[in-house]
Amino acid sequence: MKKLLLLSALALGAFAANAASPGDYYKVMVDGKELSNGDTIYCTHYQDNTDVTYDGVEEHFNFGYTYEVVIVYPNTSGSTLNLYSALGCTDRPTLEDFKANQFTYIDDTYYTAYGGPNACYSATLGAAGSCVLNAPGVEQVIEVAAGNDSFNWQFHCPTIDPTSVVKYTFTTAACTEKDASTKIAGTEFVVNVVFGPSMEAINNAGLSVEGVEMDEDVAPVYFNLNGTQVQNPSKGIYVVKRGSKVTKEVIR
Question: pLDDT tens, 111-138?
Fold first, then answer.
């Protein structure tokens, strides 16, 4: 019996050693820094798009305010990578709200693509045409060429209210084929993205790393990656302590 248990333990150990992980196929980078699975990016800078042209038309339009984050997914697999990607949102205005507020309403197609948080990549990144993930449940599998270390998803959050706080998650995984049903177990990677006008507003909204409970009434303490406390954090990756909870967070 002892010999059988020992063999079982060895078999399980070998299985664990051979199990796939995201790093076998791709990395996840922001501003040249590699993220860990489950990390949260905080973006506190928005662009005023309340007076812009649209598709070269001379007339000016009001598209509200837009936050943007770019996340790079270098292909580390050594061959073509089939990268599954899906977006999950916690906040999206209704079509009626979209039309009634300060956005210039063009047509329902514009609302579908840009009425809430979305992600896209362009043909300049090696893809044929462009792709938009614009609602929860929408998913894509993108072919990323071998050696491509610059493929990235561009995350946008247009809003009628720049003081609001919005959170969504972005999930990626490697696939054996260009088909979402062929995802490889163990290769899923989740990034949380939070947009807001300031870290104070984000903290007041109670948005933190998924699965980590924020201590009530405890101010966050920020440290750089060298362990030095930072009083007024700007853009970068920080270790953040809230009471007994410690997380790694990205401020854009």
Answer: 665 566 777 775 444 444 455 776 667 8
CATH code of the domain containing 187: 2.60.40
- Buried-exposed string 74-89: b where 16+ CB fall within 10 A, e elsewhere: bbebeeebbbbbbbbb
Q: Domain tally for the chain? A: 1
- 249, part of any domain: no
Dist. CA 77–CA 96, nearest whole Å:
45
Cα(235)–Cα(246) distance, rounded to whole angstroms?
19
Q: Is residue 156 part of a domain?
A: yes
Q: Would you say residue 108 has pLDDT above 80? A: no
Give 55-107 pLDDT, tens digit per residue. 666 666 666 777 888 899 999 999 999 999 998 876 666 777 767 665 555 56
